[in-house]
Amino acid sequence: MRVNILNRVVVSLVISGALLMGTSIPTNAQENQDKQQRKQQRKAEQQQNEQQQAAQKQTNKQQRKQQAQAEQQQQSQQQSQAAQKQANKQQRQQQTQADQQRAQAEQQRQQSQAAQKQANKQQRQQQSQVDQQRQQHSQVDQQRSSNDRQQRVQQQQQRETQYRQQLEEQQRVTQQRTALLQQQRRMAQYRYQQQYWLRLQQIRIQNARSYNYNRNSYFYAAPNYRYSRGGSYYETNQYGANLLRQAVNYGYEQGFRSGQADRQDRWQSSYEDSYAYQDANYGYSGYYVDQSDYNYYFREGFRRGYEDGYDSRNQYGRYSNGRYSILGAVLSAILNLQSLR
Q: How does 125-144 read in b/e, with b if 16+ C-beta sit within 10 Å?
């Protein structure tokens, strides 16, 4: 009985379990489906939240970036405003300095004009004084020039008179020397002396013509050269300087020819015994310089020319175009002419 009861109970339990299982299967499936939907919904919500958060982050990032840009713009604007203020301040300072400089320049200009006016006034006064002095000097110079011209005229007259007085003595000495050379049978020196005398007469005629042509110019020509002789200084103009140069050159040429003649005659060397050296008037006609000055420089050239001619050398001069002439450096050393201007 108990067994039956147990069986019945078992059967009932089995049936109840079957019924429960039958009813629980669809219930579990529904629950699983709901769970799945809720899970998907949560996932979708989570994704949506993540997207919203990402979007919010992006928005926040953009907002921060925009804020930073705005702050930078504001800062840049503030800096620009500060720079503009500084520039305006500097501009005002520069304008002030420019105004001050213009004021100073104007003041300096006015002072310069005043100083220039004063300087012009002083210059006019000085020029007036200079003009007065020049006028006074001109009057003095004219008087001095007139006196100098008068003195030169007197000197020239004395030179011409003295020279004419010596011509007769010169002719007498020439004749004596000619006779002596013939006695000594110094034929080369005799021929040279004859040529010397003949050429001397020709040069006198040429000098007279030249002097007549330049006479007035010579009297008005102021001294522009200085030379020294015997420890004393002398002044002369261009005409006198040219004649002194000519004296040295003529002296060298005649000395060379006289030296050659003595060598050809086999006569002992002695330039002081030569008639041309003793006469020393070759090329002189009483014009422009004193006879003593001309004689001195003629003999200086003659001595050097005689040594070259007697020794057949060209130490002091050279031969060119048929003439013997002294070297320029030697000529300058002998004369030592110094310009006065």
A: eeeeeeeeeeeeeeeeeeee
